[in-house]
Amino acid sequence: GDLFGLLTFDDKVRAFLKAKMGKAHFDVCRDALYMLQPQNVSPDFAELITFIGTHIRRRALMVILTHLDDPVLADGFTRHIDLIARHHVVLVNMIKPFIARPLFSSESVSSLNDIYTDLGGHMLWRRLRETQKVLQKRGVGF
Q1: What's the predicted TM-score (pTM) here?
Q2: Residue 65 — φ and ψ, nearest 5°?
Q3: Residue 111: is its pLDDT beyond 90?
Q4: What angle do helix axes 71-80 and 45-55 make, rounded to 10 degrees?
Q5: Which of 19, 27, 52, 104 could form a disulfide with 3 if both were Cys (CB 3.0 to 4.6 A apart)?
């Protein structure tokens, strides 16, 4: 089977399990995921990328689960991702915010407040699309 590992991070790297295979390693990775606790901090992508660059030498598929709906965080992420995207295959995934959608895609507008909500959702959707384009130009799936 394939080797797999786990790296968890927020404002610093919290856990790193080197790539191995087997049921015992799967159980260790699963338990590490179950033990994760949410932290109300901004992720430090520079530290993450530096850690990956120094600890993961073999080419790997990296699936990064994060939020890039904040423009400052998205800019920081796209600024640093080149350092690992040249060597690794990188896929970024996030849960799409509920309101992030193109303008006029909702048929349930019934008040002025709904219009402003939809406009804010459109602006968020557009920023995420711009982030997607930047990442795709760098060879990163989003």
Answers
A1: 0.85
A2: -100, 115
A3: no
A4: 20
A5: 19
CA distance 66 to 63: 10
Pure H helices in the chain: 23-34, 45-55, 71-80, 82-85, 112-137
Q: Per the structure block, which two tokens stand in for 142? A: 């989003």
Q: What is the number of alpha carbons within 13 Å of residue 76 lying toward its C-beta?
A: 17
| Phi, psi (deg, nearest 5) at residue 133 | -65, -45
More confident of the two residues 105 and 140:
140
Question: Which two three-digit tokens encode residue 26?
Answer: 């799967």
Q: Read off the DSSP letter of residue 12.
A: S
Phi, psi of 34 (to 5 degrees): -65, -30
- What CA–CA distance (Å, rounded) separates 120 from 122? 5
pLDDT digits (tens, 9 = 90+) for 60-69: 999 999 999 9
